[in-house]
Predict the 3D structure of the following.
Amino acid sequence: MLVSKTLAEVAKHIKPGVTTLYLDEIAETFIRDHSAVPAFKGYGGFPKTLCTSVNEEVVHGIPSEYALREGDIISIDCGVILNGWYGDSAYTFAVGEISRELRKLLEYTKASLEEGVKAAVAGNRIGDISSAVQVKAESGGFSVVRELVGHGIGKKLHEPPEVPNFGKRGTGQKMEKGLVICIEPMINLGSKETLQMSDGWTIKTADGKPSAHFEYAVAVNKGESDVLTTFDFIEEILNIM
Ligand code: MG
Ligand code: MG
């Protein structure tokens, strides 16, 4: 999917000193060069192509003149529209060397997403995904953001059902083959509470501690679900395959 390749293109440019606005320009150019349209720009009035959320910012950060620093983590969330269909994916990157604590936060957040994907099979319920994500994240001593959730996706960016990152197995809507959903755990190093900033978009952790976010779009299937927005292109760039 084009979002995956856009995130990989952005990954090439992530280093100390680079502004989040510059990363946004890279993404917008790449998307338009591939005959697609940035899905977030103008969505509900959002001004940019990417959501760039640094450190204690959970999601929906607006690209700005902020220059990345060694030791930061940055969640980059990207949406595109290609031939009328939406793609949506997010990855949290380390800027240079990061602390062991942050490394663990990124590992567990990504692993919680992978656990969610395993549960996203036909015949299971949404709560099976929610529970799988929550159990994995909390097993690392981290907390799960409650206010923001995953979602269905297709001809619109956000479609039913909601896909919370916390919940009980065996509850919620039963999933059928062909359902396409975004699973996107937002996991905090400290407590789960968040705050809405006065820019109307940025969500931060209430305690000011860092937060990570990974997102896949997944097509529900029998036996094993299909991840539509691979991280392979990104991790090839990051050299962590
Ligand atoms: Mg997203
Ligand atoms: Mg999403």
